[in-house]
Amino acid sequence: MNPEFDQVSRFLFETAPVRGMLVRLHESYQTALSHHHYPAPIGQLLGQALSAVTLLANTIKFEGNLILQTQSDGLVNPLVVQSDEQCHIRGLAQFDPAVMLGTQPLLGEGHLAITVVPKNHGERYQGVVAIRKESLSTSLEDYFDQSEQLATKIWLFADDESCCGLLLQA
Questions:
Q1: Edge-to-edge strands of the sheet including 110-118?
Q2: pLDDT 10s per residue in the chain (170 long)?
Q3: Long-range pairs for 29-34 at CB < 8 Å and ≥24 separation?
């Protein structure tokens, strides 16, 4: 992550038991897009996933890699993004270019896995949830509800230039 063009901001509400984080990626997102020729909807899904993994990596203290991966019957299979403790991010959205966009959902029925791989060869952790409603953010909210028992709301957005994410937790 280049702090000049990519930003992560944490905040607290003083009058409510709510914390949040906002991430905006431009340079890292453009770098990820430059490695492959993605149709716009697939590139935007990758941007949402890059925003999500950046939010997740900034919510926990760890040394190692945090990996977010989807496995589904959708057009994009798999979708894999990774961040280390210094927020060096990368990602890949695999798809069949012969299949026309719009003929099937980008993310279909399947699973989303979040894996933490410690640098010091400590115990690896993996949480898995079902993908709901072709929505990465909804599936991540389910992850926090089931694995962390934290009321969490996540919004993810990407266009052709930048991507961003907002996380609120009670």
A1: 89-95, 76-84, 64-72, 110-118, 125-130
A2: 555 689 999 999 889 899 999 999 999 999 999 999 999 999 999 999 999 999 999 888 888 999 999 999 999 999 999 999 888 999 999 999 888 888 889 999 999 999 999 988 788 889 999 997 778 999 999 999 888 788 999 999 999 999 999 999 98
A3: 29/158, 29/162, 29/163, 30/161, 32/89, 32/90, 32/91
- What the block records as the tokens of 108 is 């279909």
pTM above 0.70, yes or no: yes
106 half-sphere exposure, CB direction, 13 A CA radius? 17
Give how far Cα 110 sits from Cα of 3, 68, 98, 132, 143, Å: 34, 14, 21, 8, 14
Burial 75-85 (b: 16+ CB within 10 A, else e): bbbebbbbbbb
